[in-house]
Structures are given as C-alpha cells and as structure tokens.
Amino acid sequence: MKKSTYMIAALATATMMGLSPASAQFGMPSIPGAGAVPGLGGGGGGSGFSSAAAALATNLKTALYNQVMAIALIQEAQGDKVKSARLRATAAAMQAMKQPSKDQMEKSLKAVEENPVNREGLAKVKDAEGQKKVSQASAHMSVVLVYDGLAIASATAMLAQKPGPSDLANAPAILETAQLALTALPVQTTNFQKYNEMTEAYMKENNVPKPSAAEKQAIAKKTDPAAKAIGAGL
User: Fold this and answer.
1) Is 232 part of a structural domain of the chain?
2) Is residue 68 part of a domain?
3) What pLDDT does 102 receive?
4) 106 in Cβ contact with 180 (< 8 Å)
5) Where in the sequence is the domain holding 186, given as residue range(s)?
6) Domain tally, the chain
7) Angle CA 198–115–134, to nearest 5
8) Does residue 9 lie within any of the structural domains?
C-alpha cells in the first residue's frame, strides 16, 4: 500500500477519535495528556526519521503496555490468575521494548483480542479487591485512549520521513511497525472505548471510586517519562 493511503487512513482515524486532521498531521493532537509528536511535517534526513521513530516507540509502547495491563487486571478481578499472569508477562515484554517491533506488537494485540471485556464478566466481580482492580484497569484504559491517538500520529509521521544513511539498517522494520499501527490501532481504540464505558458503568453501579488524573499520569509515566496529566474525565 502506498504512503499516501496510510496517511489518509491515519487522518481518518484522527477525525474519528476527535482530533483535527490538521493537528494530527502537523502538530500536537488535541487530546488530554498529549505532547508534541516529533517528526511531523515530512522532510528528509536521518534526524527527522530518528526523532519520529523515537516518538513512535514511546507512544506505541505506552498504548500497548496499558492495553494488556488493563485486560490483565480485569482477568485478575474476575478470578482468572493464570490468564492474568500470562498477560502481565506480555505487558512486561512490551514495556521493555527499545524500538518499534512488529512481532511484539502483534503478540500484544493478540493477547488483548483473545480476552475481550464483557458486562457479564464484570458483573461477577463482587469483592472489594476485585473492584479495586477494575478501577485500576479503568485508569490503564484512559491512558490507552490517549496514547492510541499519539501512536497513530507518530506512525503517520514515521511514514512521512525519509531515512538517513544511519537509519537504513533499522528503517524497514520500523516502517513495517508504523504500517501495522495504522491498521490495527483504530480497531483497538474502538474496542477500548467500549471497554472503558463498561468499566465506568460497573464502577458507577457499585460505587467504586474513579481513578484520579494523578493516578493515570503515574501509570503513563511507567513507559513515557515525559507523560503529562491525563484528564480525570477520560
């Protein structure tokens, strides 16, 4: 698929998520907790490509790590410690990722897809400890909804850059990961919007306190040290 097609897909996704196409392509996405995305605006040279690759790595790692951790906590709340442990191991591998990896991304996406959140499962969580884990999962989901958008913007930037001589060895793998992000993250974003609505409805029905903006920021900082405050309304 040509670069222009991926750009159109990313901008369409940005619009769907409430971002303006202009801000998603040329500047800071207008979402809570979003920082500037390096490498936007096209151009050539190794520094632009490296900057975009670094942004993609951070934003993608944060999005995927929190996706898997949210599901792990839901499974743990529902009493499935085996699944939770397996998911936590996948999240830890994602957290340790140094540069965008298509294989690791696929593993994380698969882990989430195989363990969807549903209202029936949440309704079975009656104990205080389980409810606490649902609240923690909700915090992770809020981070996901911010960083999915940032990862899509970073992937768009990545495909607008020309690798420099020092980038050529890693460029194919990084670009492949960027393309997968543009294909897969819109679906995952839609899923997590639904999951977040379910967990919030559960917390409201059971008088479970929502996580604070500070708690969400602390979670985001585990994979993005520069993370800003993520709004409590997310």
Assistant:
1) no
2) yes
3) 86
4) yes
5) 3-17+43-220
6) 1
7) 40
8) yes
Give the mean pLDDT of 25-54.
50
Residues belonging to the chain = 234
Q: What angle do CA 103, 105, 111 make, to 5 degrees?
A: 105
pLDDT digits (tens, 9 = 90+) for 146-191: 999 999 999 998 898 888 888 888 889 889 999 999 999 999 999 9
pLDDT tens digits along 96-138: 887 767 888 899 999 999 999 999 999 999 999 999 999 999 9
Classify 230 as helix, strand or coil: coil
Distance in angstroms (rounded) separating the CA atoms of residues 155 and 11: 11
- 124 burial (CB, 10 Å; 0-12 / 13-18 / 19+) is exposed
Q: Which two tokens stand for residue 221?
A: 């900082």
* Token pair for 230: 């993520």
Contact (CB, 8 A) for 134 and 77: yes
**DSSP at 83:** H
Tell me how far apart the alpha carbons of residues 147 and 97 are, in angstroms, rounded to a whole number: 16
Examine residue 50 and state whether it is found in any structural domain, yes or no: yes
Q: Buried (b) or exposed (e) across 182-193, using 16+ Cβ within 10 A?
A: bebbbebbebbe
Our measurement of the distance from residue 218's CA atom to the centroid of its chain's CA atoms, rounded to an integer in Å, reads 15
Residues contacting 38, CB < 8 A, separation 6+: 51, 52, 54, 55, 157
pTM: 0.80
How buried is 228 (Cβ within 10 angstroms: 0-12 exposed, 13-18 middle, 19+ buried)?
Answer: middle
